[in-house]
Amino acid sequence: MAEITAAMVRDLRDRTGAGMMDCKKALVESDGDMDAAIDWLRKKGLSAAAKKSGRVAAEGLIGIASGPSTAAMVEVNAETDFVARNELFQHFVAEVAELALSVGEDVETLKRATFPGARRMPGAESVPEPRGTVGDQLTHLIATIGENITIRRARRLHVPDGHVATYMHNAIKPGLGKIGVLVAMDGSEAEVMEALGRQIGMHVAAARPESLDISGVDPSALVREKNVLMEQARGSGKPDAIIEKMVEGRIRKYYEEVVLLEQVWVHDGETRVKAILQKAGVKLVDFARFQLGEGIDKPTGPDFATEVAAAAGTRG
Fold first, then answer.
1. Is this prediction's pTM over 0.85?
2. Do 169 and 86 share a domain, yes or no?
3. Does any domain span residue 315?
4. DSSP string of 212-246?
């Protein structure tokens, strides 16, 4: 029996995209022969993930989980919207969000964590053996569903003596949807913070703030905005002193657009968010907003579902 080293397992995983446990078993079954191990994985359908990894995944689900003074949110992407209705996929997203409560928001750390739901997943009876890590389960899910699937990002908010409220816009199931928001607060009764936090979550989902307060505005974005406003103001032909005041006024307007505390409360259209918080005696500590697929460059040609339909029609 050949010795199966960690380096061999890593090499096989890099070449096939299969999970570590599957790669080790393939090498054992093939007595250390790399080519035979690759063939073993292909026959089991476990190397299919590598072939799909280059395809754009911008659909999927946002998942949210809550714990004491803590909440976590993840985005798991797939290639088509159909996958969001798949029970195996939904369960995977929910389990990863739950795991992020304790593991944290680093995606690579999440992938290395033990997957807690392998034995109780819907359809688990068809799985020959439990997949040990989240990454292993992800690889198996790719092979099972037949699409590229990625854990894109995660966020965890914790307030030791406060509360983290959650909001999911157009949820397809509790904690699963397309736009998710976490709102971390301090300074009032839990019931008050929960009710207000949900309202703030709805506001954040609609208003898309980029920072909590003015100090959190991206400095490079602020410089770009000032440069654009300065050029626009110079076109008026007014004196420099007047131009400076014009730009200052427009920067205040810019803050009202991108800073959460400076925004107008969407629920009444006139009060500032900071005034709402002050009245309730609540301090807003942090927030996070995930919108499915935001920032991903999507292909302009036929989507994956169209390609599949076309291929099926050609063969028929």
1. no
2. yes
3. no
4. SSGGGS-HHHHHHHHHHHHHHHHTTT--HHHHHHH
